[in-house]
Amino acid sequence: MSGAADGAAAAPPPALLAGRRGVVLGVSRRNALGWHVAARARALGAEVAVTHRPARAAAAAEAAAAAGAVLALPLDAGDETSVAAAFARLDETWGRLDFLVHAIVHVPADLLARPLSQVTRAEWDLVLGTSAHSLVAACRHAAPLLARSDAARVVALTSSGGRRALPRYHLAGIAKAALESAVRYLALELGPAGVLCNAVSASLVPTEGALGAVGDAAAAATLAHLARRAPTRRATGAQDVADAVAWLCSPFARNISGGILTIDGGFETLYL
Q1: Quick one: angle between helices 170-190 and 134-146, nearest 10?
Q2: Which of 51, 104, 225, 243 could link 75 by a cystine bridge, Cβ 3.0 to 4.6 Å?
Q3: What is the chain's mean pLDDT, rounded?
Q4: pLDDT tier at 250 (50, 70, 90 boundaries)?
Q5: In the predicted model, is pLDDT for residue 265 greater than 50?
Q6: Residue 234 burial by CB count (10 A; 0-12/13-18/19+): exposed, middle or buried?
Q7: Which residues have CB under 8 Å from 90's CB, separation 6+?
Q8: Which of 181, 55, 176, 174 is nearest to 124 (CA)?
Q9: What distances in angstroms separate CA 243 from CA 37, 139, 184, one per listed residue?
Q10: What b/e string do you get for 37-61 counting C-beta neighbours within 10 Å, with b at 16 or more?
């Protein structure tokens, strides 16, 4: 048997996303999960567009080019006009969308270092609005484009912090829980139109954003623990997540909606 424990990414069929067109929301830099998803989708044959925070245009342009994206569009998740403009551009360019991947998250610097009880109402609204409501707004503006696809898919990136209390993750975890709930309700709403809506939840992946949130020492300890305790005996990598998202975005993922696919080597199934 070939060893799955070596952590090498499997090679899905090159045509998995051939002819598909999709957008990954929230790709402002490399070494972010959204960037890995966009690059993998492109490698599997899709035409890919990405969106980024307007303030990060220069870094986002480099990241988009490295991923092979055909478009890099500014999108301010807190501005309805900005969201509408991004999807209007996609409509003008392609006329349809086959998949939409939500990878938007925003937590102000140092907020997670403070106790949850010290978070202000304004900070709460900012984080949940940017990280969770943005999926609802995106689906509203994407609906006419998704309706023109023969296999429309929506996938949101979440994390184990949406269901477990993790150190230094409090408001980010609450936002992920809200995002997961939104996925279920959007699946109910969009299902009759043929749009499948799911989420992929990953254990800690050492991206720049994750390391900044939990700190290098805590991240290293967490990854080592996952490698010791997960049934697969390895921590999760970005390519594990990207491949799972690619499959859910493909026409081969059929009649699956409202679900959360967990990528953690089986760690969540353990009692101790």
Answers
A1: 30
A2: 51
A3: 91
A4: very high
A5: yes
A6: middle
A7: 23, 49, 71, 73, 97, 142, 145
A8: 174
A9: 8, 22, 22
A10: bbbbbbbbbbbbbbbbbeeeeeebe
Percent above pLDDT 70 for the chain: 93
Q: What confidence tens digit (pLDDT) does each residue in 98-142 have? A: 999 999 999 998 899 999 999 999 999 999 999 999 999 999 999
* Residue 201 one-letter amino acid: S
Three-point CA angle 26, 244, 179, nearest 5°: 45
pTM over cut 0.85: yes
Pairing of strands 260-263, 21-25: unpaired
Q: Give me the phi and psi of 122, to 5 degrees please.
A: -65, -40
Smallest Cα–Cα separation from 33: which of 262, 237, 263, 179?
A: 237
The Cα 113–Cα 167 span in angstroms is: 9
Are 85 and 57 in contact by the 8 Å Cβ rule? The answer is no
The residue written with tokens 């009880």 in the block is 117
How many angstroms separate the CA atoms of 204 and 238, rounded? 10
Instruction: Give the Cβ contact number of residue 143 at 10 Å.
Output: 16
For residues 246 and 41, is the Cβ–Cβ distance under 8 A? yes
> Can you tell me whether residue 77 is helix, strand or coil?
coil
Strand arrangement, sheet containing 47-52: 71-74, 47-52, 21-25, 99-102, 153-159, 196-202, 260-263
Helices 238-249 and 33-43: crossing angle in degrees, nearest 10, is 60
Residue 193 gets which letter from DSSP? G
Residue with tokens 């980010």: 172
Q: How many whole angstroms separate alpha carbon 72 and alpha carbon 69?
A: 7
Which is higher by pLDDT, 175 or 203?
175
Residues 121, 150: Cα–Cα separation, whole Å: 42
Maximum Cα–Cα distance across the chain: 54
Residue 148 has pLDDT above 70, yes or no: yes
The answer to whether 33 and 205 are in contact (CB under 8 A) is: yes
